[in-house]
Each structure stands twice: as structure tokens, then as C-alpha cells.
Amino acid sequence: MANLPQSFSLSGASFGAPSSSSSATTKDPRTMASVENLVLQLSNPDLRENALHELSKKRELFQDLAPLLWNSLGTMAALLQEIVSIYPAISPPNLTPAQSNRVCNALALLQCVASHLDTRMPFLNAHIPLYLYPFLNTTSKSRPFEYLRLTTLGVIGALVKVDDTEVISFLLSTEIIPLCLRSMEMGSELSKTVATFIVQKILLDEMGLKYICTTAERFYAVGRVLGNMVATLVQQPSCRLLKHIIRCYLRLSDNQRKTQQLGSGYSSCFIILESIGFLHYKVEEASII
User: Fold this and answer.
1) Residue 11 contacts by C-beta under 8 Å, 6 or more apart in sequence?
2) Predicted confidence (pLDDT) per residue in 148-177, tens digit
């Protein structure tokens, strides 16, 4: 996992969004011409693999890559073709590293589209995230599948990063929560962190909090997974993951009636956290929140 794209950094400005320092590079005519030519090559099956690889590396250097991808004839169809072409390799699980790398390059470009202001809503209106959900439903922990899982979560993370109620509404309507909970239970530390970040962002939206607290089944499903993750942190500490877990708990505590229903299970999670030295303060005074 050492060669993961920069877009998976949780400490950066956003999932996959170009940094301000790179915006000047997009004005270089040679760079623009090179990127535009690579986008055209996506429609050619013989040139597509190299184009995917090069564009995934250069997406940070071209601020308007997302509109170019979205508006170029046949480009989005080519990217979706890359997505659906590996469905047979995920069940039964026989995804190769080469297949994983190739489809993850396509996913990196979709993440670029998902994070751009001008293409985010068209991306959702076309229901493109639904094509990615089978990747979050896998259970294999092999490196190719973990890379696929993490890259897919990066696309969803790019969507929720913007705090848009329309995005949250769409994701809730497509049952993203159970898929995130699956990744929180069996993914790598980084996959768990991104999946927990997604759940956290959904909870921070009033619609998301209401959705999860509407039924006991949803509420306890989230609470159970969070509790299991806390217990796992005893053996495998991760301050980055812990931060998002605490934020989820704090947001759930905003619904007092449901929080009371958590009872001793809710309190025991914080007892565990305190006992392993993660929390040296009252939760309401936590400086990392």
C-alpha cells in the first residue's frame, strides 16, 4: 500500500482535489495539451491502460481535468467500462494486482470528477457511485482487494467532504451505511479510517443523524461496529482512526434518547479508551475534535 495515491491522505485539503500550489501548472500549454491527448486516448481500448496510468498521476496538475473528463465524448463510458469489466473477478475473488491497479486508476479519475464543483452533482445524478458499490461488498483481505476497497472509499469520501445535504440524501437513498460498516469491520486501518470518516460526515448532517437514529436496527448496527473498533484499538492503536470514532460517538450523543438506549455499552467504549491511555480528558473537552 506504499504507493497509494496522494488523494487518500486524510490530513490534506480534500479527497482528490487539486491543491492551490498546483493550479499554476494547469496554465502550461504543453501540460494541457498532454492531458487533453491522454483523455482522448481513453476512448481507444489499445491506448487506455497507459492513459489511465498517466492521467491518474497528473490529475493533481490539471485543475479542470474533471470537466474535461465529464464533457469529452465517450470518456465516462470508457471509465465505466473499466469498472464493470472486473465484476467477474470479484466473485469469486480472483482479482490480480494488475487488474486492481488498472481499475484503481480509473477510480482515481472518478474521484477527481466526484470532488469537482462543476461535475459533482451530474456525477450523482447519473448514479455513477452505484457502479462502485460491489467493490465495497467484497470480503477478501488480499492486497488487490484492499487497494480496490480503499480507492472506492476515496471516491465516496470526496463526495461527503463538501458537506452537501444533496450528497448525503443520495448516499442514504443508496444504502451506503451498511457498506461503510463492512469496511469498518474488515478493512485495513486506512480503509477503516476513510469509511469511519464517511459515516462521521453523514452523521454530522441532520438528515444523516435522523436516518441512523430512526430505527433501533440502524442505530445499534452503527454502535456495535464502533464498539468493536474501540476494542480493536487496544491491540492496534491508531490515533487517526480514534479521532473519527470519537466524532461519531459525540454526534450520536446529540440524540439523547438513542444515546440512553446504548446504556452500558456506550460507556464501556470510553472506559476502554481511557484505560489504554488514548483519552486523558473529558470527551466534551477533547482538543482533537
Assistant:
1) none
2) 999 999 999 999 999 999 999 999 999 899
Which amino acid belongs to residue 170? F
Least confident of 110-124, 143-157, 164-178, 210-224: 210-224
Neighbours of 28 (CB within 10 A): 13
Q: What is the pTM of this model?
A: 0.83
Q: Please give the full DSSP string across the chain, using - where no structure is assigned.
A: -TT--GGG-TTSSSSSPPPGGGGGGGG-HHHHHHHHHHHHHTTSTTTHHHHHHHHHHHGGG-TTHHHHHHHSTTHHHHHHHHHHTTHHHHTTB---HHHHHHHHHHHHHHHHHHHSTTTHHHHHHTTGGGGTHHHHT----SHHHHHHHHHHHHHHHHHHTT--HHHHHHHHHTTHHHHHHHHHHHS-HHHHHHHHHHHHHHHHSHHHHHHHHHSHHHHHHHHHHHHHHHHHHTTS--HHHHHHHHHHHHHHTTSHHHHHHHHHHHHHHHHHHHHTTS--S-GGG-TT-
Amino acid at 189: E
Mean pLDDT (the chain, rounded)? 84
What SS3 string covers 173-211? HCCHHHHHHHHHHHCCHHHHHHHHHHHHHHHHCHHHHHH
Rounded Cα gap, residues 187 and 89, in angstroms: 19
Burial of 45 (0-12, 13-18, 19+ CB in 10 A): exposed
What does the pLDDT look like over 73-84, one tens digit per residue? 999 999 999 999
Q: What is the pLDDT of residues 28-51, one digit of tens each?
A: 777 778 889 999 999 999 999 999
